[in-house]
From TrEMBL:
It comes from Bacillus thuringiensis serovar iberica. InterPro entries: FAD/NAD-bd_sf, Zeta_carotene_desat/Oxidored. It comes from the Bacteria. PANTHER family: PROTOPORPHYRINOGEN OXIDASE. Keywords: Membrane, Transmembrane, Transmembrane helix. This is FAD-dependent oxidoreductase.
């Protein structure tokens, strides 16, 4: 049977970041995630050529999270967000008004 120093429940942004810091500190860590993939709500899908953030947040190339990722040696693809906004309503993509 495997034993761990720390069990983290949830493989979202916070859980994954905590697991990396704990592992770097020499702890044996397991991350438990109920979904079929890690990342929590911090993900983007491509629908008909338009990238859409699924969570209530998005990570762009700046800010505290970006600094933390650089510190951990994580290279995240991305760029400057578009000023155009799109939404999905009843399966169709709509351009949101900018004013």
């Amino acid at each position: 049977m495997n034993t761990f120093d720390v069990a983290i429940v949830g493989g979202g942004l916070a859980g994954l970041t905590a697991s990396i810091y704990l592992a770097k500190a020499g702890k044996k860590v397991i991350v438990l995630e109920k979904s079929s993939q890690f990342g929590g709500r911090g993900m983007t899908i491509n629908k008909n050529g338009i990238c859409m953030n699924l969570g209530a947040h998005a990570l762009y190339r700046g800010g505290a999270a970006f600094i933390t990722f650089n510190e951990l040696g994580l290279n995240l693809p991305g760029g400057i967000p578009s000023t155009k906004a799109h939404g999905i309503w009843k399966g169709d993509i709509f351009t949101c008004p900018s004013t």
